[in-house]
UniProtKB/TrEMBL annotation:
Biological pathway: Protein modification; protein ubiquitination
EC number(s) stated in the UniProt entry for this protein: 2.3.2.31
Stored SMART domains: IBR
Primary location class: membrane
Subcellular location: Membrane
Protein's name according to its UniProt entry: RBR-type E3 ubiquitin transferase
Superkingdom: Eukaryota
Amino acid sequence: MTTVRYRPTWDLALDPLVSCKLCLGEFPLEQMTSITQCQCVFCTLCLKQYVELLIKEGLETAISCPDSACPKRGHLLENEIECMVATEMMQRYRKLQFEREVLLDPCRTWCPSSACQAVCQLKETEVALPQLVQCAVCNLEFCSSCRADWHPGTPCPPQDPNLPIAAFLPGETSAFYKTEDEDGPIKRCPKCKVYIERDEGCAQMMCKNCKHAFCWYCLESLDDDFLLIHYDKGPCRNKLGHSRASVIWHRTQVVGIFAGFGLLLLVASPFLLLATPFVLCCKCKCSKEDDDPLPT
């Protein structure tokens, strides 16, 4: 539990306390940390715990500012992270970043051998075509497209484009995913193409990278489907993963929020119309007084 330190009022003028957006506590400036990219300020303890939690969970993207309303959408730099976490945690962070770089690099791929899992280089001029890849560590020859044994003159077997065959560096629990099941554990975000793993929960997904909401089964966008009508019909009918009562309660809350705002606007509109002339008159009067010459 974070301890908030209070000091006598005569010290505040010399060294004011700063509020942390995460724990809402107030601390002296030396106990706060500012993110370089966005200048958002948090207490060092909260920011450290936030960074460590993301690294332990296996972050998919760069570590963003913990303020969801951050206007600049800043990210923590590597040297900032290094100052907060232990050496072992920093090594894991660099490992995760390296895995992500390889995953998104069309000229690099992982050796499909579970006993090797080295990084293999592809020919840049033929990166869009299936090509022979030979692992420099274990000498395994495989196809760059389907990652099966090299099959010259034979087309690659059909695969689900949403499900990658993802390899990780030694020590990770995940190895390879290759399935035609629409409810497979890993798919790409339909907007930014970042890999997303779903362990459990409902079918309404939101990408951590681009904040795009979509259906896990058919990848259709849910950004504007606040009432989740998508799961009332079609192939994804009743596949949301929540009970009917839960869905109805969700819709009631959403409708209630919009109705509340509409009612508030309706009630306030006459008062705003009545108050407008008075506001304009006061503004004109103030402007006129400002234009009057100063008394001599």
